[in-house]
User: What shape does this take?
Amino acid sequence: MLKKGLLFVLVFLLGTPHLDAGRHTASRPMVLPFGVRPGPDTWLVGQFFGNTVDAYNFGGTWYRAGQGMHFGIDFYAPCGTPVLAAADGEVFAVDNPQYGADPHNLVIIHRDLGVVTLYGHLLEKPTLIAGQPVHQGDVVAFSGEPQGVCTSRPHLHFEIRTPDLTTAYNPVLFVEAPWHTLASIGPFTNPIFQQNLDNARQWVSLEDQPVVHFWDVTLNDYGQAWPYSWETRPPENPALARDLGNLPLDAQWHLRQLNSDLCCANPWWHPTDPNLLYMIDGAAWERASVFQYTLNADAIPTPIQPAPPRLLSPDGQIEVLNGQLRNLVTGETWSVDTDGALPAVSADNSRLLWDISSFSFVPNEPYPTVEFWVSSFDGSDKRLIWTQEGGYARWLDGSRVLIVSPMLQQTPTTLTIYDTAANTAYPLGTWNWLRDITVAPGGGRLMFYLVQQANAADNGIYTIETQPGAVAEKLPFFGSWRWRDNHSVYYIPFNPGYGDVHLLAYYHLQTREIRYLTDPTALPFTIANGDWEVAPDGQKIVFINGDGRLWLLEMTDN
Assistant: This one.
């Protein structure tokens, strides 16, 4: 059994097969609209269907017609990628402006299935004509970009609607694909879905999304939601530095189910206590609470406060309020002037960072002017450190700020580091098509991935130290990662050819050691919705499993 498992791991990692465009099941009769395997060289999922974070933030502009929901799936792909028919059918319409998805669209009717598929943001008008038959897997179009320039947001917008085109369905329920693997890397917001704090379990997974009735009442006009909207949320906190040393060679990993009920979404760890785990949960149509799991006490969830969660300093000791800070240890409260914005606290609790925007960002419009401000912890020494069009900033450590310009999903993206103690700045680099920046505990390194590079060999995951003159280094794996400590990560290899069977791997950025930690034949699991987090001791990983329940991967020494 052990030899068989190890062989499976090697084949899983080194010899994944090509995704077959003709592969489907009776329950999911359609295939993906691309004939090539997903990855940084080809295509990834940019946004899923339904109650996404993007839809919550842009529902009144981009998605107003679809009840505020994202009524298709966006596949991020270079302009000119061949688009395949998802099922047998006949052409229903070509470039009909009433169906949207400019500059070009295609609608195919599938009478046997009782639905139509819509392919939008195409590069050029398809050469097909109404009534023409097509077969599953036929090339019917080429992917493009909404503005027709291929330098902003190149992607294919894919929908499944009723034949009268008044209702949209979740393509995940129709198309055979390793959806949870695709969700592990690629969607450009984390978390993927917005949580309604008055119905915390509704519409927070890939499969559980609403049917959309066009021009009907808005579905995501929530009284209170999590995470905060992009206009109100504070910059991200830095993770406290931690050096856990090399992973023990005799470490063993085990699975433990934390609850027997279908669960929640987006659990997170206490910043310093690896036995405390939190999540937002609650009964339908009741205000949700923040629940605490104490893992060394049989993991019984206890409600500790109404949702949303407190905004805390990196060590969890300071609460950030609107215009105030509160020391949770001493109870002391003091006022700070941040112009009405919620600030983030530096890693050493010495400084505050916040941003002020000139106006709300509207898709396809110029970026707003954004100002980044800092002050001392008590609100004194308030000063403007940086102004730019669009983008964001976040703490790296006790004094340094990472500034990203402009927003991600654009090209090019420039990373700058500003030292608030020395009042100096230095560029870290500029890259085209940069995605998913994460900061190591302690702020000494970044990781991100690149796609659509002129040389395909340059696509992939990179790390760079946050020091002047540092050079980005491409890493020898591709997949979803989470930081273990200052110098190492856990990752889930991206292997869609083997479906939604996942394994855990380890990479040390200094020693360059790769180690595969679980055997998918002996310890199978599926991380659903890209939803997993590493405990501060690096020995536990919490995730939502493919069964919709909360599970732990735990490390023990032999």
Remarks:
- Confidence is low (pLDDT under 50) at residues 1-22.
- The CA atoms of residues 30 and 175 lie 4 Å apart.
- The chain is about 5% helix and 35% strand.
- Helices lie at 2-14, 53-58, 179-184.
